[in-house]
Amino acid sequence: MLYSCKLKSVCNLPVIYNKKINTTGTSNTDVPLAVPGMYQLDITLRRGQSLAARDRGGTSDPYVKFKIGGKEVFRSKIIHKSLNPVWEEKACLLVEHLKEPLYIKVFDYDFGLQDDFMGSAFLDLTQLELNRPTDVTVTLKDPHYPDHDLGIILLSVVLTPKEGEHRDVQSSIHSFLHWRIYEIKTMLMRKSWKRSSKFQTQSLRLSDIHRKPHLWRGIVSITLIEGRDLKAMDSNGLSDPYVKFRLGHQKYKSKIMPKTLNPQWREQFDFHLYEERGGIIDITAWDKDAGKRDDFIGRCQIDLSALSREQTHKLELQLEEGEGHLVLLVTLTASATVSISDLSINSLEDPKEREEILKRYSPLRIFHNLKDVGFLQVKVIRAEGLMAADVTGKSDPFCVVELNNDRLLTHTVYKNLNPEWNKVFTFNIKDIHSVLEVTVYDEDRDRSADFLGKVAIPLLSIQNGEQKAYVLKNKQLTGPTKGVIYLEIDVIFNAVKASLRTLIPKEQKYIEEENRLSKQLLLRNFIRMKRCVMVLVNAAYYINSCFDWDSPARSLAAFVLFLFVVWNFELYMIPMVLLLLLTWNYFLIISGKDNRQRDTVVEDMLEDEEEEDDKDDKDSEKKGFINKIYAIQEVCISVQNILDEVASFGERIKNTFNWTIPFLSWLAIVALCAFTVILYFIPLRYIVLVWGINKFTKKLRSPYAIDNNELLDFLSRVPSDVQVVQYQELKPDPSHSPCKRKKNNLG
User: Fold this and answer.
1) pLDDT tens-place string over residues 704-736
2) Could you tell me the CATH number of the domain that includes residue 125?
3) What is the dihedral of CA 302, 303, 308, 311, to 10 degrees?
4) Which of 123, 315, 353, 551 has a CA positioned 20 to 30 A from the CA of residue 295?
């Protein structure tokens, strides 16, 4: 008598047995034994060779993703600035079906941008020999461009079966329970592995990408002084050199010095140190060529671990793979007061700490550490009504808080459109005219974070200790996007230090978006400049009409005024007239007769520009027009930027007299009063003499001083009309107010 024993899968487990057993204990083997297909795949990611260059410097920041069945199972660390990276990372994977190949994808990491694809390959697991280490070389290819050589990846793999050997069927009934227990254990192990793999991948990603910028251990202050005897790359025997610096994900590009082999840059910038041992700064020199790829001049490196701290080092670096030297000043200093903590740990709520901070920035400590202007504390409390970025109708939001080059991040709140972070960030303020930027992103496992919204808050516009709901804006800061974010911000600063810092160059951001060509942006800058020029043209027409006696009364009054002014003119009257103009506008404002008009024209152009950018992006994808006329693009971008600079210069002068930023207008009043008094009591020849002596001896007194113009540095802090529109606070929905929210909760 035969019994048929057929065991079905439980909890979606595969069938374990499909056997026929007779009463004598012997088996009929016409139905084979099917055992679970679980394997352990041990992978050692060795290195890459001759990978594709995706950055403009001719290098990449590669990392590797492993996928099985469309799911990411491992992601390697990022190797910065290398085409021959060495990882030596190990991963242990559980594989259920050998028919599904291991998918290997390589990307170039771009902070804040979409990572660039560098190639992919498949590893056929059925071709691997069991229980034997195998060295594998996979060739990377791009499916869209199969002829391109994208390099190779070297691996070591070991495939080990996790199930037991085929057993004697006589013990199959006894082994049934063992197999069932094995399957349940395997299922639990697989779920546990998937869960731990997910958290491990997220932890790895957060540590390498997000958490790394949290806390730095020091600051590297670099002053690029000059270049000597650089290599001539142009047909005229000269070059247009500029220099790129890179420390990890931090980048800085110097200005271009036209037609010289001995450029004088005199530029200063800072990098953050994240490693205890310092790090390596990669430096490359380039020759700018309009219309084609820039020429490589040479490279060099700085090993920060070899430099002593709290000391300025003068370095003369020989350029490798080229000619010439670069002269730099490098200083390693201790970390500034930058931190991140929970809401319960609040520096300003501790009376002792608050008193110490107030004392540090009191008016009595004017000349103590002039670079330490003030203290900023930002409480990132929560956000509400965010945009759903995932297909599930949820998002995984985290928040980025930036002040110039200082950048801190919150943790990620998963599957939530109303996240609560309750984090406190503290920053040192180097420039009171800086703008605090708070950006909300959606964390994505397979690609760079999705943008959800952003706000830009000038420090001088902050009201201390007030919890406010800020409406999130789009990337261009021109209009609202979905959601609000609740912030509470406190600013403490020394007004005298802040005023002195206004007269030195602004700190440049080392991560900035590259200039792009836009028809609407070009038109907007042209209209802005035209408006500034028309002010001068109208003034000239008005003066000319006085000479033509179009209005006899007006011409007579102008003639009398001309005689009076010329007869009594003194040099001190120039700043005095400007002072009177500022004072007149101030009294108009406090009396309620505000002559500052909201620039709806610029606001409308910004909105039109955003729509036009979307159209341009689609058109460029279809036609590739800009790629075909690269040289014209360079010229157009230059014209676009010049128009922006000229228009911004005129708008900043106007906004100074319009009291757009009261702090700067008061500072201008103080300066004009001082100039009026000086010009009244001191003869002009003495003033010119002092100015000339200072200019002639400045190089002797301070050979590596950075040249600057105090007036231009002052105006650079005044926002243009475009920035005024971008920094405007949008009115939040009343339903998002904290009081309203509490009432709703009570209801």
Assistant:
1) 777 778 888 898 899 988 888 888 888 776 654
2) 2.60.40.150
3) 10
4) 315
